[in-house]
Write a structure and sequence with these properties.
Glucose Permease (Domain IIA); phosphotransferase system; alpha+beta; 8-stranded antiparallel beta sheet; globular; Gyrase A, domain 2; 4 domains
Length: 677
């Protein structure tokens, strides 16, 4: 079998790749090779003969292609890209021909150590999966230029490459009719590598219209959904699953979603949520009534998602603070008249009271309006004198709403907007419509003053006089309808919602419900619906916990353990996409547990005064007025029952280790390949 000998580029102690203190290199996600520790640095030589195909801008990495087609990456230190090139001097350039043992760079280990980084250097064959059979490494102390490894090529690999292959860059496809897939740049590691692989799997950066993220998913709007390879993306390291829903291509990441999103944004050249490429075409408009309905719903979900995601964490944190405050009152640690109570209450209530300002900012970013201007409009909606005005009764009414104010003699209804969500989203939409028109008609010399002036006046009046009351009438009607269905039979409603709610999460449609819950809590201080949703989260955690305890497969344990913790903290996507849905019956057993938990939640009339649910949100079930009451005990009973039922059913009927081999097949049936909405 043909092989290549590899020298150590620096002196030190040679270790196996699996012992390199970096998870990406250690699991050989970048390829096979070896590491060098305890190095004194100094000169760095080429480990093999070949052509330099890459030199990192920061000097921390050099890529070399050999005549046999193997691509070697010499990575100097770990996380040293952050040092902006200070410890390195590179003596070669892209396109140079180098010989094994030739000096290619210098490395200052003192600079690296003083910066708190590791000097461990890695030599990795980045195209190992295709071309390498195995790598033999001689571990132990080695001097500069010692032969320390033999890389054995696969039997089908030709010994020489053509001239065209030699000149082709690894990150670009060859200019032929059947171009090969692009090669990931050798200097990308960690989240940057994951981001590159995702972008490549969805059709490249040119196929991305815009991108945002939520608690666990990076959400893409693609120009052509057919270009995305669901299976390839779902199988990437760092990706849990892929979902097409709501007009979005959703890549489920889990806890690392913010890091992956930032890496994706950097590589796409975007600066924030939903920053679309300048050349992105308009979405194809539907031609049928049903098509328009689907299109409108998809757009609505997208706007709600983009508007609510950035404030969800704040709502959750505020809910926990509210619960803690209730406990402090219940156990007589503080009293309502104290300054301590007022300070903590301000911390817990501020995000709800000023919700129009925060949601206005995020909605404007999503819709393309000026976030600062829309935030000011949000400030108008929750201005203290208007809040007082909303609390007064008028002499007449329209559509059941009191006409409690007038504007130049025109009577209208001032609603309480300080805890609202939907009116400011409509305001952001209206601002996105009139703002471009104002910029066209107002001269540049006075645009900075008069665009905000006219926009604030026009949009504020439109919301206060017309759109706001209408939106509040509709949203209040929907909330009352949901509450009415619950009141007809709390037990039946709890069971049905408990069984089906997590199915909405699969497609991201729960974002149509979350704003209703948030507004219900903001306006009324509580939400029965959210209490049922909490039980479904605990049930999903109970099912994946059973998998964690039962399985003997280390990979499944590694995945299911953190997923259970996440579900008990109110985030179910890692459990659902990582385990429950993938192995089919587990999700069914979890849904049965959710139905039982929801049924008991309704039976005990469990109410919820905070936004955060599941086990971590226990303080949300403490009544601010009465302290620990029947809602709290009902929550504990319903949560315990939902968890237990899901756990037991999964243990006996939902999962066995032999299901792991069928996991991908289950997901294929569930996801399929759908046309983009």
């Amino acid at each position: 079998m043909e092989y290549e000998q590899v020298m150590t580029p620096i002196p030190g102690t040679v270790i196996r790749m699996t012992d390199v203190p970096d998870p990406v290199f250690a699991r050989e996600a970048m390829g096979g090779g070896f590491g060098i520790t305890d190095t004194a640095g100094g000169d760095v030589c080429a480990p093999v003969s070949g052509k330099v195909i890459m030199v990192a801008k920061t000097g921390h990495a050099v890529g070399i292609t050999t005549d046999a087609g193997l691509q070697y990456l010499v990575h100097l230190g770990l996380d040293t890209v952050e040092l902006e090139g200070r410890p390195f001097t590179v003596d070669v350039a892209k396109g140079d021909r180098v010989e094994a043992g030739q000096k290619i760079a210098t490395m200052d280990v003192d600079e690296i150590v003083s910066a708190g980084k590791s000097t461990t250097t890695v030599v990795v064959v980045t195209n190992s999966k295709k071309l390498v059979d195995h790598v033999d490494v001689t571990v132990g102390d080695a001097a500069l230029g010692d032969t320390v490894a033999e890389v054995y090529l696969t039997a089908s690999q030709p010994s020489e490459v053509t001239a065209a292959e030699e000149t082709a860059e690894p990150a670009e496809a060859a200019d032929t009719e059947a171009a090969p897939s692009p090669q990931r740049p050798a200097d990308l590691t960690g989240f940057d590598a994951t981001a590159w692989d995702i972008i490549n799997g969805i059709g490249g950066a040119e196929n991305v219209r815009s991108v945002t993220h939520c608690i666990t998913r990076v959400r893409f709007y693609l120009k052509d959904g057919n270009l995305a390879d669901d299976e390839a993306v779902a199988d990437l390291d760092g990706v849990i699953d892929v979902v097409r829903a709501g007009g979005q291509y959703q890549v489920v990441i889990g806890a690392d979603v913010e890091d992956v999103y930032e890496a994706v944004s950097d590589q796409l050249g975007t600066e924030g949520d939903d920053t679309a490429a300048s050349d992105a075409p308009e979405k194809e408009r539907p031609t049928t009534v049903l098509g328009w309905a689907k299109y409108g719903f998809s757009e609505l979900i997208g706007v709600i998602t983009g508007s609510m995601i950035p404030v969800i964490g704040l709502l959750a944190a505020s809910g926990i603070i509210k619960g803690i405050l209730s406990l402090l009152l219940t156990f007589d640690v503080i009293v309502e008249e104290s300054n301590t109570y007022q300070i903590i209450n301000a911390m817990s209530d501020a995000v709800f009271f000023f919700l129009p300002i925060f949601v206005g900012f995020t909605a404007a970013k999503r819709l393309g309006a000026d976030p600062i201007i829309v935030s000011i409009i949000g400030g108008v909606l929750c201005y203290p004198s208007l809040v007082e005005m909303s609390e007064t009764e008028g002499d007449s009414a329209l559509l059941g709403m009191s006409l409690n104010s007038d504007f130049f003699g025109i009577p209208f209804h001032v609603a309480g907007y300080s805890y609202s969500i939907f009116p400011i989203i409509v305001a952001a939409w209206l601002a996105s419509v009139i703002e471009p028109w104002l910029k066209r008609v107002i001269p540049n010399t006075v645009r900075m003053i008069f665009v905000p002036l006219f926009e604030v006046v026009i949009v504020s009046l439109a919301i206060l006089l017309i759109l706001g009351p209408v939106v509040m009438f509709i949203s209040t009607g929907i909330a009352n309808a949901i509450q009415g269905l619950y009141d007809l039979s709390p037990t039946a409603s709890g069971m049905v919602i408990g069984a089906l709610y997590q199915s909405l999460v699969i497609f991201g449609l729960h974002w149509a419900v979350i704003p209703l819950v948030a507004q219900d809590i903001a306006a009324n201080g509580n939400s029965y619906l959210n209490a049922i949703i909490s039980a479904t989260m605990v049930a999903q955690g109970g099912a994946v916990l059973a998998v964690f305890i039962k399985t003997k497969i280390e990979k499944i344990k590694t995945l299911s353990g953190p997923a259970a913790i996440s579900a008990f903290c109110g985030i179910t996507e890692p459990a659902m996409y990582g385990v429950n849905l993938k192995y089919g019956r587990v999700f069914i057993m979890a849904s049965i547990g959710g139905a039982v938990g929801g049924l008991l939640t309704g039976m005990f009339n469990v109410n919820m005064w905070g936004f955060t649910g599941a086990l971590i949100g226990f303080t949300s079930f403490v009544n601010p007025a009465d302290g620990v009451d029947s809602s709290f005990w009902g929550y504990l009973i319903a949560s315990a029952a939902g968890l237990s039922v899901a756990f037991v059913l999964t243990w006996f009927f939902g999962f066995k280790d032999s299901d792991v081999d069928k996991g991908r097949e289950v997901k294929k049936v569930r996801l399929g390949r759908r046309e983009p909405n």
